[in-house]
Recover the amino acids of this structure.
């Protein structure tokens, strides 16, 4: 039904802007497979052509295409050009070209194989994913959380120039000075003594998410160890030196409600089930059937016809 509606949309929207001649607006759209969508000379694009093209796309790509007249026009123009080019080819020569016939057979095999795998998935993946999604949610509750979000301010004592020992000693000294310091005092010290050059733009502030891989992991661990706003860490070592980190704001992790998590869980379980049945189907095709291999013929293809006689 969705595709039928989409084809009506193609008929009504695709040719906006005068790129193509249009049928009278009062004529009822034809959505039968053989009905023409676009024509140039002897090249005709039918409802079946557009249906096949659209159904080959992922659902999100289908929606984007069918809601955008410009994309529709571009797709139809490309289909027409391909059809025009194909119509110019001498069919008799195509029949005589062995390599071209092999390529056509491979293209056919690929398309039909995809069709068959779609059938296999439809036949064998019959689980109630809504029920399975709830079971998955309950057994994976620890994963159903939004990560902690925190804002921190840091003071860096860089070790590259002064060495690890000296940098650590200075950081420990600053930690003593800043023990119990409020956010205002800590911010002032960051601007005065921090070796991080980015402080001029961000005043030492970082917005962090638990689990991120884009931040130095030692720094992240030190920040995540802070539990109270205003708390200052002991010196935290990283690849840059030693940091004093103050927690400015904390948003705790929250459990995602089932209804919010359900669509993603259903998609995950369905994808896993689809992969499983396809893997099993492919495996079944190799069981009980002897594989025959002709290495000499492959050598001739790779190294030339004289490969065997050269040895």
């Amino acid at each position: 039904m969705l595709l039928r509606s989409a084809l009506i949309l193609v008929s009504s929207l695709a040719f906006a802007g005068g790129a193509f001649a249009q049928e009278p607006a009062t004529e009822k759209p034809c959505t039968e497979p053989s009905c023409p969508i676009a024509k140039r000379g002897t090249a005709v694009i039918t409802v079946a052509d557009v249906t096949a093209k659209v159904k080959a796309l992922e659902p999100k790509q289908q929606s984007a295409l069918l809601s955008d007249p410009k994309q529709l026009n571009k797709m139809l123009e490309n289909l027409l050009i391909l059809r025009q080019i194909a119509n110019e080819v001498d069919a008799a020569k195509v029949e005589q070209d062995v390599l071209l016939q092999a390529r056509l057979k491979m293209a056919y095999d690929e398309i039909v194989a995809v069709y068959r795998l779609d059938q296999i998935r439809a036949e064998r993946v019959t689980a109630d994913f809504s029920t399975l999604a709830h079971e998955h949610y309950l057994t994976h509750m620890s994963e159903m959380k939004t990560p902690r979000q925190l804002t921190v301010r840091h003071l860096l004592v860089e070790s590259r120039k002064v060495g690890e020992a000296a940098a650590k000693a200075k950081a420990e000294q600053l930690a003593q000075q800043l023990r119990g310091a409020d956010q205002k005092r800590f911010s002032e010290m960051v601007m005065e003594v921090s070796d991080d050059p980015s402080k001029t733009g961000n005043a030492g502030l970082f917005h962090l998410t638990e689990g991120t891989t884009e931040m130095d992991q030692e720094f992240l661990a030190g920040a995540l160890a802070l539990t109270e706003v205003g708390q200052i860490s002991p010196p935290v070592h990283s690849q840059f030196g030693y940091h004093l980190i103050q927690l400015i704001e904390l948003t705790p992790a929250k459990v995602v409600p089932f209804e919010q998590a359900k669509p993603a869980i259903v998609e995950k379980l369905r994808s896993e089930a689809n992969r499983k049945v396809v893997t099993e189907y492919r495996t079944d095709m190799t069981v009980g059937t002897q594989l025959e291999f002709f290495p000499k013929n492959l050598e001739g293809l790779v190294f030339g016809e004289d490969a065997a006689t050269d040895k």
